[in-house]
Amino acid sequence: MTDEAGFRTRLEAQAYGLGFDLVGVAALGVPGTVDHxxxxxxxxxxxxxxxxxxxxxxxxxxxxxHPGATHAIVVGMRYxxxxxxxxxxxxxxxxxxxxxxxxxxRALIPWLATELGRAxxxxxxxxxxxxxxxxxxxxxxxxxxxKNTMLINPRQGSFFFxxxxxxxxxxxxxxxxxxxxxxxxxxxxxACPTQAFPAPRVLDATxxxxxxxxxxxxxxxxxxxxxxxxxxxxxxxxxxxxxxxxRFAMPxxxxxxxxxxxxxxxxxxxxxxxxxxxxxxxxxxxxxxSAITRAKLEGVRRNAxxxxxxxxxxxxxxA
Length: 319
Ligand code: SF4
Ligand code: SF4
Fold this sequence. Notes:
Elements: H1 4-17, E1 22-27, H2 34-42, H3 50-53, H4 56-59, E2 71-78, H5 97-116, E3 122-125, H6 133-139, E4 144-145, E5 151-152, E6 160-167, H7 187-191, H8 209-215, H9 222-228, H10 237-240, H11 243-248, H12 268-276, H13 280-287, H14 296-313
Antiparallel strand pairs: 1-2, 2-6, 3-6, 4-5
One iron/sulfur cluster binds next to helix 8 and helix 10.
């Protein structure tokens, strides 16, 4: 490609026009974090998330999941870091990001084909398949891995979704983000109510409230139930306390990520009471196209019962 600067400007315009807030390009190869990921799996920190362990061989080289692909356009889309904290993690208050992001990434394909003057082979990934998107995002210059394991962008914080469009085209790449801007800060590690970080940048999912309230099926052990407090679905604490979010989090531009009426502005007691009373039909209707469906009705009601139990134990006036 001869007009690299011009391409970069047009790619940014196209990506921002589609609603993405970050964009960069990386060459596919062996991820820098693949050993770290293997050690994480070996330690059992993924818990019951068996899908994490699948596709290890494909994950060892980002060129493998989609043969023929050589580069990736990596994007980020903000999801409301300026929203107030509450009983539902910010990412799950609006529509399911997988659908929204995949559709937008697909919209880049005809644009890129026109730009190059040829048909291209491309595939979007959004938290799907054996592709380490966070690793690609760092390589594409979007940010660094915080001690809370999130990718942090120095101008926008970490409240954004990541996605990648892998392509069979040698695009001009961005410089990787090599700096570690966490410095001596340990706020995320200190704030975690369940001490889910055995070390900086290592998350033991089996101690994380997001894991228990979203991924786990069945009963939650008593010690963890108490630590869940008022959190009905997911947990944002280790992101909320991060100074990069405190200073630089920006609102989402995406209407699909705005909190739905069924959850917006409601406190833990109100939501938990509503959720506990839900039948299957109401649940499906309320959360169609929402990430909350991942917990299934059983999980949502289980979480609601725990939160109500915890609220009963709290001294009056603290909830
Ligand atoms: S999401 Fe919550 S429970 Fe999980 S590591 Fe972060 S602060 Fe801890
Ligand atoms: S809270 Fe501090 S240590 Fe944690 S990710 Fe943010 S800057 Fe890094």
